[in-house]
Design goal:
This protein is an alpha+beta fold. Helices cover about 40% and strands about 20% of the residues. The chain has ten helices and ten strands. Strand 7 and strand 8 form a beta hairpin. Helix 6 crosses helix 7.
Length: about 350
C-alpha cells in the first residue's frame, strides 16, 4: 500500500472516531435506561406484592375479629337463654359488616358469623368423675391408680406431683396412660373445664346431654338395648324421673348418692348445664388479595355462674391446627364478665403455660 493511501485511511479513521465515541455512549445510555427500567419494574412489582400481602393480613385480622366477636355475641345469647330457664340454641348465625375501600370508596359487605354450641357438661370431668365411671369407659385399674395418685387428695393435699389435670392430653404427658391406650380412648368424652370450685365440684355431668355410652357408664348399664332405651326416654324432668326410667336401685349406680340420702341426686349429676363449648367461624363472602378466600375460627369453653357472670375456661384462636401451637388454657376470676384487653379472656386473667389447681378443675 502506498504511503499516500495509508495516510488517507488513517485520516478517515481520525475523522470517524468522534462518531464512534458518540455511538458507544448512546449504547451505554440505552443499556443504563434498560437497567433502570428493569429495576423500576421489579420495585413496582415488589410494592404490589407488599400491598397485596398487607391487604391479605388486614382481611385475616378482620376475619379473626369477627370470629372473636361471634364468641362474645353467643355468650350474650346463652346468658339470656339461661336466665329464661331455656336450653341455648345449638347454633347462632350472626350478620356483621366489614368495610373495605373498593374503587376509591368505602363499601360495607355483610359477613355471616356462625357459632355452634355444644354442652361441655355432656363430657366427663377427668379431675372429679368417679373411677368406676372412667373404668367403664376404658381406663384400667393401673391407669386409675396413677390418675388418683396424680390428683390432689380429698383432704386438699397438693404438691408438684399432685395437681389437677390442665387438659385431657396430660393423661399421656404425665404418664397416666400409655400411648396405645391414649390413642384408643375417645378423648372427646372427657373434659377438665366444667367445675367452678375444685374443692366443691357439683353438677358437672349433664344427664340430659351425655352420650348413651356415658349414661351406661354412669348408671352401670351394660346392655346396649337398655342403654339406648334409657337415652331415648330423655329429657329427664327430675331425679325421681331418672330413677323411674332406669328402674334400678340407686346404690347400684357408678355415680351413686350417699346411703343416707339415696333418693337425692348425686352432687356430680345435673339435668341442665352451665358450661358450653363455642366454635365461631367466618368465611368472607368476597375474595381478598390475590383472589384468596379469607376465613377464621375461634373455639372457647365458657362456664356460666349462678350469679349471672361467666368465665372463659379455654380459648383456642386456631382450632384447626395442632393444639400445642394454638391452645391456651385459661382461668378467669369468678364474678367477672367484662371483656379483657386481649380477645381470649373475660376478666383480668392472663394466659399461662400452666394453670392453677382451680383453673384445671
Amino acid at each position: 500500500m502506498s504511503s499516500s493511501r495509508r495516510a488517507t485511511k488513517i485520516e478517515r479513521l481520525r475523522d470517524s472516531s468522534p462518531s464512534a465515541r458518540e455511538g458507544f455512549a448512546l449504547i451505554g445510555a440505552i443499556a443504563m435506561l434498560a437497567l433502570f427500567a428493569m429495576l423500576g419494574t421489579a420495585y413496582v412489582r415488589f410494592m404490589m406484592i407488599e400491598v397485596d400481602d398487607t391487604s391479605q393480613e388486614l382481611d385475616v385480622l378482620r376475619a379473626e375479629y369477627l370470629a372473636t366477636g361471634g364468641i362474645y355475641a353467643a355468650i350474650g345469647e346463652i346468658e339470656y337463654a339461661l336466665a329464661e330457664g331455656a336450653v341455648p340454641d345449638a347454633e347462632f348465625s350472626l350478620p356483621a359488616n366489614v368495610y373495605r375501600y373498593e374503587g376509591g370508596k368505602q363499601v360495607a359487605r355483610v359477613q355471616d358469623v356462625t357459632v355452634t354450641v355444644s354442652d361441655e357438661a355432656a363430657r366427663l370431668n377427668l379431675n372429679h368423675t368417679p373411677p368406676q365411671v372412667l373404668r367403664a369407659l376404658g381406663l384400667d385399674d393401673g391407669e386409675l391408680r396413677r390418675l388418683e395418685n396424680a390428683l390432689p387428695t380429698s383432704s386438699g393435699l397438693r404438691s408438684e406431683s399432685r395437681r389437677w389435670l390442665n387438659n385431657v392430653d396430660e393423661l399421656l404427658t404425665r404418664g397416666i396412660v400409655s400411648r396405645r391406650d391414649y390413642d384408643r380412648l375417645d378423648r372427646n368424652r372427657f373434659t377438665i373445664h366444667t367445675v367452678a370450685d375444685a374443692d366443691k365440684p357439683t353438677g358437672f355431668i349433664n344427664l340430659n346431654a351425655a352420650e348413651p355410652v356415658v349414661l351406661g357408664a354412669i348408671f352401670g348399664l351394660h346392655d346396649t338395648t337398655e342403654i339406648g332405651t334409657l337415652a331415648a326416654s330423655r329429657p329427664f324432668a327430675s331425679w325421681q324421673d331418672v330413677l323411674t326410667k332406669t328402674g334400678r336401685e340407686p346404690s347400684t349406680f357408678n355415680v351413686a348418692p350417699p346411703r343416707y340420702a339415696s333418693r337425692e341426686m348425686p352432687s356430680a349429676l345435673a339435668l341442665t348445664s352451665r358450661c358450653y363449648r363455642l366454635r365461631s367461624e367466618v368465611g368472607m363472602n368476597y375474595r381478598g388479595a390475590r383472589g384468596r378466600t379469607v376465613s377464621a375460627a375461634v373455639e372457647a369453653v365458657v362456664l356460666f355462674h349462678e350469679n349471672g357472670t361467666y368465665s372463659i375456661r379455654y380459648w383456642n384462636g386456631r382450632p384447626d391446627v395442632a393444639a400445642d401451637d394454638a391452645m391456651i388454657e385459661l382461668e378467669i376470676p369468678v364474678g367477672t364478665g367484662a371483656e379483657p384487653e386481649a380477645p381470649p379472656a373475660a376478666g383480668e386473667a392472663q394466659p399461662a403455660s400452666s394453670e392453677t389447681d382451680e383453673t384445671a378443675a
